[in-house]
Each structure stands twice: as C-alpha cells, then as structure tokens.
Amino acid sequence: MPVVAVQLGLNSMGLVDTLMVGRVSSVDLAAVALGNLYFFMVGVFGMGLLMGLDPLVAQAIGAQDRPAATLAMQRGIVLAVGLTVIAVAGLLLAESAFGLARQPGEVIPVAARYALWSIPGVLPFYLFVVLRQSLQAMSRVAPIVWTIVAANLLNVALNWVLIWGNLGAPRLGAVGSAMASSISRWGLVAILLAIAWPLLRPYLRPLQVGILRARPLGRMVALGGPIGMQFQLEFGAFAMVGVAMGWLGTVPMAGHQVALALASFAFMVPVGVAAAAAVHVGQGVGARELGRARRAAGAALVLGLGFMTVTALIFLTFPRGLSRLFTEDPATLLVAAALLPIAGVFQIFDGLQAVAAGILRGVGDTRVPMYANILGFWILGIPLGLLLAFPLEMGATGLWWGLAAGLASVSLLLIWRVRSQLGRELRRVLVD
Q1: Is the pLDDT of residue 28 over 80?
Q2: Rounded CA separation 164/170 (Å)
Q3: Which of 29, 200, 241, 429 has the maximal Cβ count within 10 Å?
Q4: Is 203 inside any structural domain?
Q5: Contact yes or no for 167/161 (Cβ under 8 A)
Q6: Residue 116 CB coordination number (10 Å)
Q7: How many C-beta atoms lie closer than 10 Å to residue 427's C-beta?
Q8: Following DSSP, what letter does each residue of 339-398 receive, concatenated?
Q9: Burial category of 343 from C-beta neighbours within 10 Å (exposed 0-12, middle 13-18, buried 19 and up)
Q10: How many domains does the chain have?
Q11: Burial, 265: exposed, middle or buried (Cβ in 10 Å; 0-12, 13-18, 19+)?
Q12: Cα dist from 403 to 118, 266, 312, whole Å
C-alpha cells in the first residue's frame, strides 16, 4: 500500500497540473498534454534503465550483501548524471519535433516553451528514481510517502502562483506548470534525502572504489536497458496515439488528455503493486527461497487484476461525470466521455502486463517484456489503431481500440513468461 501511495502521489502531480491548466484554455491544456508527453518520451528510457536497480538491490538485500547494494546505488547515481545529458539534448529539440509531427500550429509554441522549462527538472527526476528504487528494494517506503505528500503540496502552491498569476506573478498558464514541476522535482530529492538520510548514508558515503568501472556499469546498462526500451515502446505507443490525436485537431487532443489522465491515475495502483512484486520476488531470489518468490508473484497478480476490474466498472459507468472534473468545454467533454469506456476495457490488460513485468524485473528477466512490447504495440496495436481511426473513420475511439488490442496481447505474453520463469530454478543477478 505505501508503494501504491507513492505511485498515486507521483501521478497526482501531473493530474493536478492537468486540472489547473484545464481551467485556463484548451490550447494550454493541449500544450501541457504535448509537452508532458514529449518530456516523458525523452526521459522514460532513462527511468526504465535505472529500474534495473530493482533486481540488483533487492537480491543483494535478500542475500544480505550490503557491499553489492552500495555499489549498485552509487553506480545508479553515475548513470543518472549521464542520462541527464542525453535527455536535455532531446528536450532542446522539442519545437522541431512538434513541427515534424504536424501538431496544431497554435499549440506548438506553448508546448515547446513547456519542454524547455522542464529541462531544470531532468536531473532530480533521475536522482529521485535511484533513491526511490533503492529504498523500495530495502522495503523502506515510509520516507518516500512523506516526501510525495510534501512535494504534492509544493506543486499545488507553485501551480496556483505560476499558472494563474497569483501573488503578483505573471499568468503563465502551461509554461507556469512546467516551472512548477521542475521546482517540485528538486523538492522531491531534497526532502527525501533529508527524511531518509539515516537509511541512505551507509550506502551513499563513502564513495566506493570501482563505481566508475566500465564493465559493471555496462552490465547494469545491459540489465536496465531492456526495461528502458520496454517503457519507451509502451510510452511511445501512447505518444504515437497522442500525435495522431493532434492530426485530428486540438479538441480531440484535449479530450484524449483528460481520458488519459484518469486512466493513468488508476494505472498507478498496479504500477505500485508491480514495484512491490519486484522487491519481494527479488528478495526471495536473493535469499534462494523460490516458494516465497512464487507466492509474492501470485499475490501481486491477484491484486493488480482485482483493482483494475473495479476501475474498469467505474469508467464504464460514469464516463461523463469523471470527464467533467477536468473540463466544461462541451466538445472536449464529448471526446473524453467517449474514450473512457474504452479505457475501462484496456485497464484490466494494462494492470496485468504491468504487474507481470514487475515480477519479471524482480527475477532479472528484462528482455522478454521488451520483445512483448514490440509485438503487442508496434506490430499489432498501433497499426490497428491507425487503420480504425483514419481509413475506417472511427477517429479518436479507433486509436484507443488499437491500444486496447496491443495491451491485451502484451499481457497474455507476459503472463505466459511469468509462469515459465517461476517454474524453474532461479539465480541471483550479479554485475561484479
């Protein structure tokens, strides 16, 4: 539950941004959708790569091997710095990328400024991932929960000032949201270090000999890289749908953002369950207790499926009422209300694939989820969605039905892989 609370808290920062910007204009809402999409499109590979810490730290903790856990955490910080350089270079190209993607002309300049003001938040974004994954792998989550609560309060206050122009500040709309997010990400790291320093200090000080050794760093990249690619492929599929929504116009794009914000918020629960599964499965593998790892995997799948079934029923029953929380624009509301029932269908498959990927991450199996995403999203889901949306003229709903088909195929493939992996002997992952 604390890990789920962390995921919900992280997502609620973006949800609050959408709620507050949605009261400014449809252009600002679409710009936040596009700018935020691009930020994560650029940064999600690095986030996934750093999640390679899950099996390394959790299995080291299970094996009571503190030196290995210390090296993994410190090398994670080294990788975070390198990934920041790459992500910043990508964000500087935002305006050109939006133009090439043929996004609405009135949205591009605002979305490009949003991306530029997101740059100061890249390094703390990655550093927080390192600290969060490490603390979760140690089963010490309370400091992260309190940090998320504080950062959300900070984000709301900064949004109130910068988006709407209170306390004498200029009314900045979408750009103010980006500024608030960057400052809040630095707040995340500072608050977490302050609260969790007694837990983190033995792992962060002193610096270990060998943290810059090329081969172990290369092995960490080889372990985490497929997770990064998996995230990139999945997020890229949603990004492609967002771009295609832009081809349909500003209103479909704004409606898509509303529906996606609600679906993403619900999705944070199975993501949290997946993170907990990665820890428990990883600790079980490290301790050479296969039965413990299997029980954790089974419990995680039951929890993920159960929760997403409930949210699916809610989305199918109250699409218009939920959409009205974000916008009063009749045209945007119509699109969002049409998409939410489809989200209800793919919620179940999305939850299953997220939890299954977390289980496999705990085992150290990171390549098969990447291959499953290639097949499910890019060979099946995206082509089907584009076919339904444009040649068959189903528009926004056609794009989302393509996503649903892709998620269904990914989830079935990963459930099969979990069953296969947990049916054999498992060994600890080592990089040194």
Answers
A1: yes
A2: 8
A3: 29
A4: yes
A5: yes
A6: 16
A7: 10
A8: HHHHHHHHHHHHHHHHHHHHHHHHHT--HHHHHHHIIIIIIIIHHHHHHHHTTT--THHH
A9: buried
A10: 1
A11: middle
A12: 28, 16, 15
**Is 221 buried (19+), middle (13-18) or exposed (0-12) by CB count in 10 A?**
middle
Look-up of token digits 């998409």: 339
> Of 323, 336, 181, 316, whose CA–CA distance to 254 is shortest?
336
Task: Tell me what pLDDT residue 119 has.
Answer: 95
Domain that holds residue 69: 2-421
Give the tens place of pLDDT for each residue, 46-104.
Answer: 999 999 998 999 999 988 999 999 999 999 999 999 999 999 999 999 989 888 877 78
In a domain, 428, yes or no: no
Strand residues in 143-251 grouped as ranges (E): none
Tens digits of per-residue pLDDT, 303-332? 999 999 999 999 999 998 888 887 778 888
| Pairwise CA distance, residues 207 & 205, whole Å | 5
Q: Are 356 and 301 in contact (CB under 8 A)?
A: yes
Instruction: Answer whether 416's CB lies under 8 Å from 369's CB.
Output: no
Which pLDDT belongs to residue 408?
Answer: 94
For position 372, what pLDDT does the model report? 94
Token look-up 């428990």 returns: 280
> Tokens 């009314």 label which residue?
171
Q: In the predicted model, is pLDDT for residue 23 greater than 80?
A: no
Q: Tell me what the mean pLDDT of segment 392-407 comes to.
A: 92
CB within 8 Å of 109: residues ≥ 6 apart: 95
CA dihedral (267, 356, 138, 9) in degrees, to 10, reads: 0
In a domain, 184, yes or no: yes
Q: Are the C-beta atoms of residues 230 and 369 closer than 8 Å to each other?
A: yes
DSSP 8-state class, residue 424: S
Q: What is d(CA 6, CA 123) in angstroms, rounded to the nearest whole number? A: 19
Going from the C-alpha of 205 to that of each of 70, 193, 208, 213, the distances in angstroms are 9, 13, 8, 18
Q: Determine the Cα–Cα distance for residues 46 and 169; give it in Å rounded to an integer.
A: 34
- DSSP letter at 119? G
- State residue 359's pLDDT score: 95
For the whole model, what pTM was predicted?
0.83
Location of structure tokens 């400052």: 183
Is residue 17 in a domain?
yes
pLDDT reported for residue 185: 94
